[in-house]
Specification:
Blueprint (H helix, E strand, L loop, with lengths): L24 E7 L13 E6 L3 H4 L9 H12 L5 E7 L9 H17 L5 E3 L8 E3 L5 E3 L2 H14 L3 E4 L7 H14 L7 E5 L2 E3 L2 E3 L2 H14 L19 E2 L5 H9 L3 E6 L3 E4 L14 H18 L9 H20 L12 E4 L7 H6 L1 E8 L8 E8 L2
Parallel strand pairs: 1-3, 1-4, 4-7, 7-8, 8-12
Antiparallel strand pairs: 2-3, 5-6, 9-10, 9-11, 12-13, 14-15, 15-16
Length: 393
């Protein structure tokens, strides 16, 4: 904190501008060794930003991308996506993605680029679903994609306003899928609410592909159709486009079993086609069971952080705490009026605390200011606590 400055706000700043977007998508693909540009090394990244599918074929590097990524671009736009950031990551071999150390080394540059792209809210990696699985003699299912998914879920957790759409590994079905999913969900619980998985794979004629990119387009479509705070609408009971049939058709017992395992089934409905029949995250925490709850919390957290990051350079004293309390309440009332937060009246189901309790001398010495926000997103039964920390400890 810069010493000697007292904050005295005469009026609230305009909080109606620069509302956080939740539909912008990053699609991560891979560039195999034989398609690297000259002088490239493992971990190099080639970026493309496109607004419609034909722009991909006009790009210098489109031929370098793996086929699953190119198919994913088509699926995204066919299902209503509007803006796609493609990241082509140079890898020596698929084995580089199978260990935490390998993923960490490859993602040094890409991780930094993703962190710098503040507006990205969704991440998909359809090519990762082709990594293999093994079943031990004791029946434990291990998927080679786990280190990559763990890395990206942790990234979403750190970035606040980011959500990973996962694919089931190719060839993993029935009890083996549910067994793997149970272990995977329990592995690192704090990150699992930042992702959702859909099953089964999809077909467009003879072409079979993982569903994540189609779902990302559907997420974006639903949000745009429901206005600036469309993230409140769960991405469920909606039809998918550019799909002729499912890899496997599910009966209702299988659908129920998948839902209980927090896997979102894709089903065939007469007269509608392929329909999304679930909106659950991978969380084992009941507070974040549903995708829209997690993403509303993401939106609120990110918006409050962007609104108030100016406070990092102000003197950490009661004048600042009062200004932050007022500004945060103002934004939360906007969210309540938009229908994101529960309560019959403003403030019924949300609280803001910013005082010497949250900002002890130890906190002040660290150069940070803390605001505690408690809220209940609409449709949830539990309060969610956000620790809004501004500054660098």
């Amino acid at each position: 904190m810069r010493p000697g400055i007292v904050v005295r706000h005469g009026h609230l700043s305009d909080r109606t501008a620069d509302v956080v977007r939740c539909d912008m998508t990053a699609l991560i693909g891979f560039i195999s060794r034989d398609h690297w540009p000259q002088e490239a090394v493992a971990g190099d990244v080639y970026e493309m930003e496109i607004r419609r599918e034909p722009e991909l074929w006009e790009h210098t590097h489109w031929r370098r991308l793996d086929s699953a990524t190119k198919r994913g671009v088509r699926n995204f736009f066919a299902n209503g996506g509007q803006l796609l950031h493609i990241y082509g990551l140079c890898i020596e071999a698929a084995d580089d993605l199978k260990t935490p150390d390998g993923v960490d080394a490859l993602f040094v540059d890409l991780g930094a680029r993703l962190a710098a792209m503040e507006e990205i809210a969704l991440i998909v990696v359809p090519a990762a679903a082709y990594l293999s699985c093994t079943v031990s003699r004791l029946g434990e299912v291990v998927a080679d994609v786990e280190p990559l998914y763990n890395y990206l879920l942790e990234h979403c957790h750190q970035m606040r306003n980011r959500f990973l759409i996962l694919d089931p590994p190719k060839g993993l079905h029935d009890d083996l899928l549910r067994r793997w999913l149970k272990r995977f969900r329990e592995d690192i619980p704090k990150t699992r609410s930042f992702g959702a998985l859909y099953y089964p794979w999809l077909n467009d004629g003879a072409d079979c592909f993982p569903p994540s990119s189609s779902m990302a387009g559907a997420y974006a479509r639903i949000e745009r159709q429901n206005g600036v705070y469309g993230v409140l609408q769960p991405p469920a009971n909606i039809e998918l486009e550019a799909v002729t049939h499912l890899e496997l058709e599910l009966n209702w017992d299988e659908v129920d079993a998948l839902i209980q395992a927090n896997c979102n089934p894709l089903i065939l409905q007469s007269g509608r086609g392929i329909v999304v029949f679930g909106a659950r995250t991978l969380s084992i925490d009941e507070a974040f069971k549903f995708i829209n709850t997690r993403r509303v919390a993401n939106l609120v957290t990110e918006q409050l952080w962007r609104d108030n990051r100016w406070a990092v350079f102000e003197s950490n004293n009661p004048h600042l705490w009062s200004a932050l309390d007022r500004d945060v309440r103002f934004r939360l009332e906007m969210f309540w009026e938009a229908g994101l937060l529960a309560g019959d009246h403003p403030g019924d189901q949300y609280t803001v605390k910013c005082s010497d309790v949250q900002n002890s001398l130890a906190q002040i010495d660290k150069g940070v200011v803390s605001v505690e926000v408690t809220m209940r997103p609409i449709g949830t039964a539990e309060q969610i606590v956000i620790d809004l920390t501004l500054g660098t400890a």
